[in-house]
Amino acid sequence: MTTVEIEYCVPCGFLDRAETIQHELLTNFGAELDRVSLVTGDHGVLTVSVGDETVFDKDEDEYDVDGIVREVRGQL
Q1: Residue 13 contacts by C-beta under 8 Å, 6 or more apart in sequence?
Q2: Cα–Cα distance for residue pair 74/50, rounded to 1 Å
Q3: Contact, 56 vs 20, CB < 8 A?
Q4: Between 20 and 30 A from 69 (CA), which of 18, 42, 54, 63?
């Protein structure tokens, strides 16, 4: 089974985005995932990691929930 970690910036108010990503991942892959964790951060962070692989980083990628779901699917 696979673990997904979503790290989000608390001061930036990215909790809504992190929860949206979490909801979509659990809706699409719930039975295939061990855990989808929300991890608090700061300094503008919003990343999604599958195991040790970062599949989305707001600093490098455009925020697109469907794109994030596709990237996670590619890791499963």
Answers
A1: none
A2: 10
A3: no
A4: 42
Asked whether 50 and 75 are in contact (CB, 8 A), the reply is: yes
The model's confidence at residue 71, banded by pLDDT at 50, 70 and 90, is very high
Distance CA 72, CA 76 (A): 7
State how far the alpha carbon of 25 is from the alpha carbons of 6, 11, 34, 42, 51, in Å. Answer: 11, 24, 12, 23, 14
Write down the H helix ranges in 1-76.
Answer: 15-29, 65-75
pLDDT tens profile 18-67: 999 999 999 999 899 999 999 999 999 999 999 999 999 999 999 999 99
Q: Is the pTM of this model over 0.85?
A: yes
CA distance 53 to 43: 21
